[in-house]
Each structure stands twice: as C-alpha cells, then as structure tokens.
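Thread: Newbie trying to understand structure tokens

Hi all, I'm a second-year student working on a class project, and my supervisor (Dr. K.) asked me to get a predicted structure for one chain before our next meeting. I've only ever worked with sequences, so writing a 3D structure as a token string is new to me. If someone could post the tokens and maybe explain what I'm looking at, I'd be very grateful. Here's the chain:
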Amino acid sequence: MEQDGEYFAQQELPARHEGSTRQTVLLLLKTKGQMKAGDLAKHLQITEMAVRRHLSTLERDGLIKLSIVRQAMGRPSHIYRLTEQAEHLFPKNYHVLAMDLLQELEDDPDTAALVDRLFEGRKRKLIERYALRMEGKSLPEKVTELAAIQNDGGYMVQLEQDQEGFVLHEYNCPIAQVASRYQQACQCELALFRQLLDTDVERTECLAKGGSKCSYRISGG
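---
Reply by user tm_fold:
Sure, no problem. This is what the structure looks like when written as tokens:
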C-alpha cells in the first residue's frame, strides 16, 4: 500500500486527497475499472464501514460515482467507478503522441506541407466553435468572452485595460511542448484572436520563445 501512496504523491493530487487510503482507492478503481465497497475493503484490509467513509468523501468531491446494478436474483449491486474529473489526476502524454505524429509528417517531403494545413484546420474549427459567442458584442465584451474561452482551455488568463485598449496575459500554455517546436501553433492563436475580436492584436511576449507568459496587446476599447 505504501507504494501506491508514493505513486499518487508524484501525481500531485489535491491536498484534500493526500490520505494514502483515498489515494489507493482511486488507484484501485483506475486499475480495476469498477469495484464494490466490500471488495475495496478487502484490498485495503479495513472495515467496509471505514471504506464507505472514504467513498463518501470521494463521491462528494466528484471523483467517483455510484452505479446500482440490478441482478436477476438477490439484491442490487452498488458499484463504484472513477468520474471523468478523476481521470485528470492521472498522467496524460497526449503531447508526446501529437509531437510524434507531427514529426512523422514533417520528416516526409510528401507530407511536410500537411503540418501547416493541420494548424490552419484547427484555427478554422476554433473560429467556427466560438464565433457565435462573439456575435452582437462590443469589443470589451468580446475581450471578456475571449478571456473566458481561454481560461476554460487552461490558459490561466489575466486581463488588463488601459487607455490604449486591453492586454491579455496567458500564464499557462496547455500545448507548450507542441508550440515550442511548431510556431504555427502560436501564429494560429494570434490569427484566431484577431478574427474573433475583429480588431488589431499584437503579441508582445511568448512562452514558446522563452517568455514568462504569452501577452497580447488588443487595440481599442
């Protein structure tokens, strides 16, 4: 059980779940898929009443969910499984896959041009996804909406306003590994902002180029 606790410590679980028992419950549900409270109690070598207290806390925090499975005979089974929110506690290496696929295209002369087309396609999809949220809004409202969109995407946005307009700071880049190699990602983000806001936007600092944040100067106000 000690090894399980060490595993989750490395994954930086929220502080309220640092208890090794709850960490182990999450790990068991991750590896087994779904389990009953009684089976969890056996694995953990604690009473079923004790494990239910941990399950109640994890369920309250949105990390596990309870399903009732009815059977042909006997009482229904109460099954616990991880929620989508809990899945984010485990390591993900999507950027490695993306980098490998992009490099595969880039290394082949017959497909190298597709890299630019992929980023352009991504920009078009984002414009289609968010254009309606900008309709009928003033520039200040559009900038506020853009900040909300980027915050939802994990960019950790801070918005400032001065006499010249707005400055949008992004303190995190969820695609930093890709953007550091493929500048098309940064170029597409700038083009996206200009199109959604329908005004002049200038990037003044870039995380992918060694900056402490990505900053955009937005004209008007």
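A couple of things are worth pointing out once you decode it. The CA atoms of residues 127 and 195 lie 8 Å apart. The two ends are 57 Å apart (CA to CA). Feel free to ask follow-ups in this thread.
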